[in-house]
Amino acid sequence: MPGALRGPDRLAFLLALVPYLQDHDTVSVTDVAAHFDVTPERVRDAVTLIAVSGVPGATNQYQHGDLFDIQWDEFELNDRIVLTHLVGIDDAPRFSAREAAALIAGLQYLSALPENADRAAIASLMAKLTRGASAPPTQLLAEKSGSADALALIATAVQADVQVEFDYLNGAGEHEHRFVDPLRVESVDRDWYLRGWCHLRSAVRTFRLDRLVDLRVTDRPRTGQPVSALPDRLFEPSAEDLTVVVELPESALPLLADYRPERVTDKVHTEKVDGDRCRVRLRLASFHGLKRLVTGLPGTVTVIAPGEARRVVADWAAAAAAQYETPAAPTERA
Questions:
Q1: Pfam families in the record, alphabetically (predicted)?
Q2: pLDDT tens across 86-103, in order?
Q3: Are residues 101 and 86 in the same domain?
Q4: Cα separation of 313 and 319, whole Å?
Q5: In a domain? residue 101
Q6: pTM as predicted
Q7: Out of 53-57, 69-73, 126-130, least confident range
Q8: Element (H, E) at 216
Q9: What mean pLDDT comes out for the span 283-299?
Q10: Are residues 114 and 163 in the same domain?
Q11: In 10 A of CB 121, how many CB atoms?
């Protein structure tokens, strides 16, 4: 049985009741009582009090337009509550149509994350933003990444508390079969990463979603590795990492933050050379990771050592350039 409300509880109930009624065009007294866990009599008394409350207008007197109003026939005959006039609440600042649209787009993005698999609260908030904006917000749809299907499968595995299974294209370009306890999904710019306990390596590992091949949800239960087992940083150095020396302008050092976020400005690992250029030692999982670095900073980074790293990048660049070669015409070949 719902208990009697104390003074502070009565005030909190009244403050929560008006927005609730505003969100419901028509609602029965019994439904309101069940929602707030109070008696129907308490709801009727509160509605009666609200109907004679308001904000004094310019005359400092409570005129008809200065008070809340309800459909009294519905209330007295059918025990239903329908607000017909609001005061005070409508004067509160509102989001503009553009602000509401931006927030709704952000919520659409968040709803794709596995940890937000229960999207009821997000959908309710988007509906409130739409109703509460000063004008109808522009209809926007957040672009879904190519990893949307993988995100959905990982969310299913998290809810079922089971492992995921996939073939993974590692940094060396090799496929390996993995069983992983999914712990967290994170994004860096446009790339998504799965962080979890890898049963092949018996350690926490990070996987790019666009490198997962044939991702499946298994019936193998997770081993109970806690989320607290995850390192603070997304990318952690490993004893198997390879050391590479690259040369670039000193002003471009911050662009290497994704590769060595903790040491790009460390003088021990940075050596000044001619002019404003400097050499930096990086640690990568494989030399193939240099392809992404060179592509992202064309003409800025020069690979200095070791020789194998230079060969990998040179071969890759030559293969790319060969795709643009124009075959000679028949007469020219003759």
A1: HTH_PafC, WCX, WYL
A2: 765 545 566 777 888 888
A3: no
A4: 10
A5: yes
A6: 0.44
A7: 53-57
A8: strand 212-221
A9: 77
A10: no
A11: 11
